[in-house]
TrEMBL record:
Boundaries of every Oxidoreductase molybdopterin-binding domain copy: 30-179
Organism superkingdom: Bacteria
InterPro entries: OxRdtase_Mopterin-bd_dom (IPR000572), OxRdtase_Mopterin-bd_sf (IPR036374)
Organism: Priestia koreensis
Pfam families assigned: Oxidored_molyb (PF00174)
Lineage of producing organism: Bacteria, Bacillati, Bacillota, Bacilli, Bacillales
Protein name: Oxidoreductase
């Protein structure tokens, strides 16, 4: 009882307004799930735009970075939150060190398969908590959850966490992405319920 109440309280502090906690891991996206058939020889990740040293990484290049792990909470704009997700991946700060981001870069456009994009300020993208994740709760990402790599930006609504990431572009002018052009908020802070652009 007593412990139960403490746990409830802690959980409430961790759940943004008008979200409900689920233990499931729902799947949400626009478009189709890419089929790589376990063959990543034609797969790569570009880091482009306002960087001194643009680079294209193969899957194996990325796996040579140190792995980092993180545990954080997912808040989906449709109302579900999933607590304590264990991610493994690489730090976007480590990747950024290799390309040297120019000071003029103010936004990051994340490009996924099928020309899906999402946008966020460069200082949000370059937080220590942003990962290029390859595993979730101890297992490689499934195709539906973003295999081989997805972005994880835990402090914003989960639509900013691009699955099937293929290019990280640093730009000067903001460019609203797929959901942002379709009515979602441009920034998406779950604690302020920035769900829709008319909020
Ligand atoms: N490439 C891509 N990434 C995407 C999306 C998408 O449509 N395409 N949808 C976003 C949305 S709206 C959500 S809620 C999460 C869902 O991730 P999940 O299916 O792993 O739960 O992925 C985000 N990343
Ligand atoms: Mo979403």
């Amino acid at each position: 009882m007593f412990f139960g109440r403490i746990k409830q309280k802690q959980e409430n502090d961790r759940v943004p307004p008008n979200q409900h906690v689920t233990k499931k891991f729902p799947i949400l996206h626009h478009g189709s799930v890419p089929k790589y058939k376990e063959d990543l020889s034609n797969w790569n990740l570009k880091v482009s735009g306002l960087v001194e040293n643009p680079l294209t990484f193969s899957y194996n290049d990325l796996r040579e970075f140190d792995d980092v792990s993180a545990t954080n909470d997912i808040h989906c704009v449709t109302g579900w939150s999933r607590l304590d997700n264990g991610w493994m991946g690489i730090s976007v700060q480590d990747v950024a060190k290799k390309v040297n981001v120019k000071p003029e870069a103010r936004f990051v456009i994340l490009h996924a398969e099928e020309n899906w994009t999402t946008n966020l300020p460069v200082e949000d993208f370059l937080r220590a908590t942003t990962l290029l994740a390859h595993s979730h709760d101890g297992k490689p990402l499934t195709p539906k959850h973003g295999y081989p790599f997805r972005i994880v930006v835990p402090h914003l609504y989960f639509w900013k966490s691009a699955k099937w990431i293929r290019e990280i572009e640093f730009v000067k002018e903001d460019q609203p992405g797929f959901w942002e052009q379709n009515g979602y908020h441009n920034y998406g802070n779950p604690w302020e319920e920035q769900r829709f652009s008319w909020d």
